[in-house]
């Protein structure tokens, strides 16, 4: 399944879902290599680097969101639902409601098909929150939650990897991304931290971060790779059109 399979057990396919609050995650201590928190200037998102990519501005001015509303159990939106392309607001309230939402995201992720990460817009809640667990298995290793994440920098070395997405059932294709990313984010209690992610965690983060930018993984595929999965994308588009004939969406081609 992967071009860099040493990063992850062969049974795990990327992506998407999580639960818990960061104070319950021993996570960053062992899985994230902490870096000194500094006033680094933010770089633009990596979106737009790939062939055929869609350029989306870093949402540093994302509108604040002070109330979260969702219906449990959460269900995952499928491409091409336009909510996957909508702007995502900055979370401003850090309370038990946010913790419950993160927990529900994890539950949803673990119910998914080998999901290892999930971003809030994938369940129709357009806020800047992601959860992930590189093992895709509840109770295995750490569950990570990043609130209002921002990319500080990426390294210059890229790698290719066969990605999937819970919003694109059973569609897998290669995507090129930097192998390391430095991130600023907040925990569920609102505390700020800076981490440097490498390996599979770096890839999961960048995939989920794209969701927060309204960018989907096929935006980053080369023209040839995108052409290879286009029939599957167009099948999803036809399914959506038949279910929601009056809803407009962006087509893959
Ligand atoms: Zn995804």
From TrEMBL:
Top-level lineage group: Eukaryota
Subcellular location: Plastid, Chloroplast
Coiled-coil stretches: none
Major site of localization recorded for this protein: plastid
Any one Gene Ontology BP term: translation
Enzyme Commission (EC) number: 3.5.1.88
Catalytically driven reaction(s): N-terminal N-formyl-L-methionyl-[peptide] + H2O = N-terminal L-methionyl-[peptide] + formate
Cellular component GO terms, alphabetical: chloroplast
Tagged with keyword Nucleus: no
Protein name, as recorded: Peptide deformylase
Keywords: Chloroplast, Hydrolase, Iron, Metal-binding, Plastid, Protein biosynthesis, Transit peptide
Family assignment from sequence similarity: Belongs to the polypeptide deformylase family.
Enzyme class: hydrolase
A GO molecular function held by the record: peptide deformylase activity
Pfam families named among the record's database cross-references: Pep_deformylase
Organism: Symbiochloris irregularis
InterPro entries: Peptide_deformylase, Peptide_deformylase_sf
Its job: Removes the formyl group from the N-terminal Met of newly synthesized proteins.
């Amino acid at each position: 399944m992967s071009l860099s399979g040493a990063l992850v057990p062969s049974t795990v396919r990327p992506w998407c879902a999580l639960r818990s609050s960061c104070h319950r995650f021993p996570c960053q201590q062992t899985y994230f290599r902490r870096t000194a928190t500094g006033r680094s200037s933010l770089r633009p998102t990596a979106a737009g680097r790939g062939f055929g990519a869609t350029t989306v501005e870093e949402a540093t001015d994302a509108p604040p969101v002070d109330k979260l509303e969702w219906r449990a159990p959460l269900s995952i939106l499928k491409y091409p639902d336009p909510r996957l392309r909508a702007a995502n607001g900055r979370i401003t309230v850090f309370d038990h409601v946010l913790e419950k939402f993160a927990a529900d995201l994890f539950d949803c992720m673990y119910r998914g098909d080998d999901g290892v990460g999930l971003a809030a817009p994938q369940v129709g809640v357009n806020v800047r929150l992601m959860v992930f667990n590189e093992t895709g298995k509840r109770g295995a290793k750490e569950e990570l939650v990043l609130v209002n994440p921002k990319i500080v920098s990426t390294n210059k070395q890229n790698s290719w990897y066969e990605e999937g997405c819970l919003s694109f059932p059973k569609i897998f294709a290669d995507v090129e991304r930097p192998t390391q990313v430095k991130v600023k984010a907040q925990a569920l209690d609102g505390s700020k931290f800076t981490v440097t992610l490498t390996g599979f965690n770096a890839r999961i983060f960048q995939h989920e971060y794209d969701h927060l930018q309204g960018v989907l993984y096929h935006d980053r595929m080369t023209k040839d790779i995108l052409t290879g999965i286009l029939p599957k994308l167009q099948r999803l588009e036809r399914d959506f059109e038949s279910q929601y004939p009056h809803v407009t969406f962006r087509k893959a081609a």
